[in-house]
Amino acid sequence: MSDANYSAENYVAAGLEHAQNGNIEGALVQFDKAIEIDSKNISAFYHRGNVLANQGRTQEAIADYTTVVTLDEKHAYAFYNRGNAYDATSETIAAIEDYTRALLLMPELTNALNNRGIAYGKLGEYDRAVKDFTAIIELEPHHVLAYNNRGEIHFQNGTYDAALADFKQANDIRPGHLMFIAGQAVTHHALGDDTAATSLWRLLVGQDQRYLEADWVGDQLNWAIPLTDEAYKLINKM
Fold first, then answer.
1. pLDDT tens readout for residues 40-63
2. What H or E segment, with its residue span, contains residue 153?
């Protein structure tokens, strides 16, 4: 088929194929051509936004998602992805607003609940964060990251018994995962149980010596400062 016979949908399909094959510039060219033909092609703007976001071109992605939700105010995934883009630029309140819009349109979108919970945690709104992670667990009782993330929020809020219960539940669902062992270890330490804390931490060090470096641990696990600080204290006792 010659370019002259291509429709906007053909260009979108070609763009998606290029993106799947890792040809990012080729994908963007195809989406651009689709938009040249049809300046209101929602699919072209949406998929171009996704490619741009994956390339770290966040502001351009936000612009594309904004076009999508202007054309279709019920496009839940565009709100969700724009929320992720706002979060990537530390626009946390804007991210929460978009996650909320997405959830109004698609209440079962657990990724939006999860990311909104994380965003609430960044703002110190721990009760709201816990509510979101709990809602995920009610929808998906074996959602291991929801337990872990709720555990981290409980830890930041100083409710260590609840944090420990969540980290243990996460570990029960996915036994031996280092992130959940680490969560249990620092929480035992915060509760004053040095024996349990150091025993668990030695398991981590046995898997990777970098667990003796608290900064690395915090970055690796994407921990908030209170958990990383507790890891410092624990490692100093090793």
1. 999 999 999 999 999 999 999 999
2. helix 144-156
Are 121 and 150 contained in the same domain?
no
Residues 105 and 150 in one domain: no
**Model pTM above 0.70:** yes
Exposure of 229 in the CB half-sphere (CA atoms within 13 A): 6
Give burial (CB, 10 Å; 0-12/13-18/19+) of 52.
buried
Q: Does residue 146 sit within a domain?
A: yes
Q: How confident is the model at residue 68 (pLDDT cuts 50, 70, 90)?
A: very high
Note whether residue 2 is domain-resident.
no
Residue 117 in tokens: 């919970």
- Domain hosting 214: range is 142-238
**What sign results for the dihedral spanned by CA atoms 129, 134, 136, 142?**
positive
